[in-house]
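Handoff note, outgoing to incoming analyst
You'll be picking up this chain. Sequence as last confirmed:
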Amino acid sequence: MRALLFALVVLGIGTGLVRAEDARIEGMAVNGSQNGKPLAGAEIVLRGGEEGALQIVANTVTDQSGRFVFDKLPTAPGLIFLPGANHQGIHYPGSRMRLQGASSTPFVKLTAFDTVAVANPLVADLHEIDIQIQEGTLKVTETLTINNPSVTTYVGQADSGSSLTTLSLLIPDGFERVTFHNEFNGRHFMLRDKRLVTDVPWTPGKREVKFSYHLPSEDGKGPLEWSVDLPCKTYRLCVHGENANRFACNLVRAGGPNQSAIVFESSEGIVSAGHIVRMQPASQPTSLIVTLRWFVLPMLAGLIFFTAGFRIFRRALPKQASAA
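Most recent structure output, in case you need it:
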C-alpha cells in the first residue's frame, strides 16, 4: 500500500494524511446480466483525490466469490475514494465515499453488465423539440430521455467510417452553434454529416441528452424536418413566440388555437425509427376585410359603369324628343 500513499502525495493531497491500518474498503462485484452472479477475476480500480481531481491510485482483482479489498487506506479531510469494476472493456463506477476515521470499513457492491453490439435496445421515452421564435432565427432545444430497458450494455457497431456508433441524431439543414447542456455529452458527441454521433456505451437504465442550436427564420423556405432516430414513446414539438400559431406539423395538434405555445404531439403508440416529422408555416386563411375588399371592388366598378351609362341615356332622351 506504499504505492497508494505515494500516489496520493503526488496528487497533492498528502498534507494531513493519516495512515490508518484499519481504514479499508471492502466490496463485491456482480454481473447484472446474469442475475447478480459473482464476477470472478474482474479488475477493480480505485480512484482517489479531491473532488474534481480523482485519479487511479490502486487496483486489484476479485476472487472466486467476486470479493475485493483495499486496506491500509489513508484518511484526510476532503479525501474522496471511488471504486469501480472493469468488465468486457467497460468501466462501471460505484459511489464516491469518504473514510470516516481509522475504523471505517464501507462495503461496496459494484454491478457490471455483459456487452452487446447488435440488436440496438435503445428507445426514447420522450423526444421533445422546443422552438423559440426570435428575430431572424429559431432557437431549437431538443431533449431526449433515452432508455436502455435491457440488462446488457449496448456498445454499437462500426459504421461505414469504421468507428463505433451507439447513437446518431439528425439535425435539420442550416443549423448553427450546437450546444450541449451537459458537459459529459458535449465531450462525447461529435458532428458528422449533419448528425450528432457518439460511441458512448449505453448501460441499462435511463439517460437524458439535451442540446440546443439555431436555425435561420426565412420566409418561403421549405419545411423543417427531423428524423425519428430511435423508436419513441412520446414525440412532442412545441413552438413559442409571436405568430407561433401560423405553423403546421404532421403531428397531432394539442390544445386550443389561441395559446402562446403551440404543441404538436404523437398519437398513441410508439413512433417508429425513420419516421420524418415536418413543420412549416401554414397557409393563412384570408381575412374578412381582404375578402370583402375583393368582393366590393367589382361591385363598385359595376355601379360606376351603370351610373355613367344611365346618365348618358338620360341626356340622349331630350334630343330624341325634339327630333320627333
